[in-house]
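In the design runs reported in the main text, the only information available to the sequence generator was the tokenized backbone. The following block is the verbatim input for one such run; it is reproduced so that readers can re-run the procedure and compare outputs position by position.
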């Protein structure tokens, strides 16, 4: 039976129809996540009805809805436990009640990094693998893990997904999460401009003249030999690589999957992380395989079927 899926990201709410492991159709609407999620629900409901209509999938045939959000979720109650400056009303919403009233369907809900990991585990780079860690390099650093064939959730739903908040720099940059020197507060898209501007070579750097100071600009200027670009690239690679070593020491994976928008520069990132991990991870049994995602942006959508079955078994 088809499942409707939505992935409420910071800039776009992606949605689609998944059936038998295949994304039949997908699209997106703007998130406007600086405002409340409740304000976006009428548009999302209309978009879900629209995509069903356009693809000849009658709503009566849909089994339910799966949704991923950028927060910690209590999967037993379906309630969102926190907000991090986006969709600030999330902890007040009962999305299961919304889905019931709007569509008469059950709604499964999960953290977005964990959803992407589920997608890669069930149908992507981690297919057939019982022990994997996935990290998403983007606005923040999303982490999730599968151990011994089970998704790691923890008693409060936060196990694994705070992996981007492992301390990689003692006494480093304070992080909005409350900790100091987190991987995410040292090297992610949201802190990149501050990291670059703090470098002494920034005023004379090509980066100072970039309209959009993103990782694409950093990798481009570094490749051209720009001193600040090279320093920021090296700093970021070191942060992600040391985080990878810590995650490998914590979870004992066979497979380490890296995704996210910054992986547009996978040709530089993958060899750097692999080489660092080979030198510094303690894995006397052998070598962790480090690969890019297979599903990219659609991983969280593909996970929708598994999640619905997990939270509403049939
Ligand atoms: Zn943090």
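Verbatim output:
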């Amino acid at each position: 039976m088809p499942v409707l899926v939505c992935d409420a990201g910071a800039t776009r709410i992606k949605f689609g129809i998944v059936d038998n492991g295949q994304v039949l159709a997908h699209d997106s609407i703007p998130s406007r996540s600086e405002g409340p999620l409740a304000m976006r629900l009428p548009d999302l409901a209309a978009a879900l009805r629209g995509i069903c209509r356009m693809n000849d999938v009658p709503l009566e045939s849909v089994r339910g809805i799966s949704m991923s959000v950028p927060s910690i979720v209590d999967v037993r109650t379906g309630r969102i436990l926190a907000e991090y400056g986006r969709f600030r009303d999330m902890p007040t919403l009962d999305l299961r009640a919304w889905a019931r009233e709007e569509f008469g369907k059950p709604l499964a809900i999960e953290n977005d990094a964990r959803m992407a990991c589920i997608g890669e585990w069930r149908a992507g780079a981690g297919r057939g693998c019982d022990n994997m860690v996935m990290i998403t390099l983007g606005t923040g650093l999303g982490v999730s893990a599968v151990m011994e064939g089970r998704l790691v959730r923890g008693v409060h739903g936060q196990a694994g997904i705070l992996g981007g908040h492992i301390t990689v720099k003692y006494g480093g940059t304070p992080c909005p999460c409350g900790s100091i020197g987190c991987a995410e507060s040292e090297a992610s898209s949201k802190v990149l401009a501050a990291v670059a501007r703090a470098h002494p070579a920034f005023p004379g750097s090509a980066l100072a003249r970039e309209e959009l100071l993103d990782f694409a600009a950093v990798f481009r200027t570094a490749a051209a030999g720009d001193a600040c670009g090279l320093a920021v690239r090296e700093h970021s690679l070191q942060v992600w690589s040391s985080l990878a070593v810590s995650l490998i020491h914590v979870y004992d994976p066979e497979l380490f999957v890296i995704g996210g928008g910054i992986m547009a520069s996978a040709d530089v990132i993958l060899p750097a992380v692999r080489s660092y991990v080979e030198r510094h991870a303690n894995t006397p049994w052998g070598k962790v395989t480090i690969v890019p995602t297979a599903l990219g942006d659609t991983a969280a959508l593909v996970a929708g079927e598994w999640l619905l079955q997990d939270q509403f078994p049939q």
